[in-house]
Amino acid sequence: MSATQVDIKALESQHVLQTYKRQPVVFERGSGMHLFDDQGRKYLDFLSGIGVVSLGHAHPALAKAIGDQAATLVHTSNLYFHPLQGDLAARLSALTGIERAFFCNSGTEAIEACLKFARRYWYTKGETTRTKYVAFKYSFHGRTMGSLSVTSDEHYRGPFQPLIPGVSFADASDPASVAALVDDTTAAVIVEPVQGEGGVRPIPPATIQAIKDACAKYGTLLIADEVQTGCGRTGQFLGSQTFGLTPDLVALGKALGGGIPIGAAMVAGRIAETIFPGDHGTTYGGNLLACRAALVFLDELDQTLAANVREMSPHLFAGLRALAAKYPVITDVRGVGLLAGLDFSKDPAPVVAAALERGLLVNRTSNTVIRLLPPFIVSKRDVDEAMGILDAAIGSAGL
After folding, report:
1. Is 276 a catalytic residue?
2. Which of 140, 243, 344, 376 is catalytic?
């Protein structure tokens, strides 16, 4: 470890709250698909800041827009109009088919907004017993108290009980569990089209239909957590579009700002009509800098990147299936678009470490899954390089 790394580690150990298990590397700059550490070593990034750096690192158009906006106006607060929120909201409405947007600073904040707006809808309608939520086993929606309440993993939940009451967890592998839990006291069902943190688990078609049937039967609202699957990662703008869901509320985040923090709750018109000034708010949400970054992202997505996601996805999954055929320790290949997971029969943490040593960034999630979330600019050459490094890493890990 370099002297710089020792100094950074010492400072963090004394002054930074120890909520993260960091990898032993210090990144100083990036370019495209690559990051560079404090020793000048290059790494191929197949994690993109956990699905955030959608345009790659130091994207020229994004860098220019951020610089121009910072030199013009960054923040005014939501007490006033500015020229970018309406433009961004209109673009997102056209892409999602959902009428209105509430801007915030992260995906978790967007989830909180959706949960509140669902409750507000039923309260305004006079159905005050409509307070419950149905979520899913393996779900992850965030770590704030509301989003944590609809996250299933007891590891996250346990230390912070009691959480919001009235949350039940269906099993995505059992469609009947949805029908058993949704009733006329359910405010909303919340689902990730692909459960990212839960192990890259696409919701099966039969369960998708069960969600649609239950919501139709009781008029229950549907919240789609598109923080990881949205903004083009599945090949369409929303994972819901890929999986045939029509949500009433959608939470967006991660890829939307290309690295600048922004989240959005998309709200159907009939729900928006029941929400009034003061029902929700944010100081930073929808500031000019974040909106400008999101508009650049949408421009790039529309021009080339949506097509690139669709083109690169089959090549990525072909490479992963080849690895699975070679290594019996890989039990499953899952995912869609540029969201992929390799499920192992043993803890693959040594593979993640070996990949890092060889210059590839991936991560482990749900204990047994290696997750890949490359930037949308990824090429076939990048995929081939990543597969070669993963091959060597798996071979050396001794699993």
Report:
1. no
2. 140
- β 330-336/363-365 pair status: unpaired
- pLDDT confidence of residue 29: 98
Classified as helix, coil or strand, 362 is coil
CA distance 95 to 128: 33
Please identify which of the residues 37, 225, 248, 343 carries the catalytic annotation: 225
CA distance 330 to 348: 9
What's the pLDDT at 1?
53
> Which option is the CATH number for 3-59+305-397: 3.40.50.300, 3.90.1150.10, 3.40.50.80, 3.60.15.10?
3.90.1150.10
> Cα separation of 200 and 177, whole Å?
20
Question: Which of these is catalytic: 136, 254, 297, 344?
Answer: 254
Q: Are strands 100-104 and 132-136 parallel, antiparallel or unpaired?
A: unpaired
Using the Cα atoms of residue 311, residue 63, residue 372 and residue 26 in order, give the sign of their dihedral: positive
| 225 in catalytic set | yes
- Strands of the sheet containing 42-45, edge to edge, are 27-31, 34-37, 42-45, 360-361
Q: List, for residues 317-346, the tens digit of each pLDDT value.
A: 999 999 999 999 999 999 999 999 999 999
Q: Cβ–Cβ contacts within 10 Å for residue 209, how many?
A: 14
Concerning whether 299 is annotated as a catalytic residue, the answer is no
Q: Where are the domains of the chain?
A: 3-59+305-397, 62-300
Whether the predicted pLDDT of 62 surpasses 60: yes
What burial class does residue 276 get, using C-beta atoms within 10 Å of its C-beta: 0-12 exposed, 13-18 middle, 19+ buried?
Answer: exposed
What is 62-300's CATH number?
3.40.640.10
Whole-structure pTM value: 0.97
Please tell me whether residue 53 adopts helix, strand or coil conformation: coil
User: Per-residue pLDDT tens for 105-163?
Assistant: 999 999 999 999 999 999 999 999 999 999 999 999 999 999 999 999 999 999 999 99
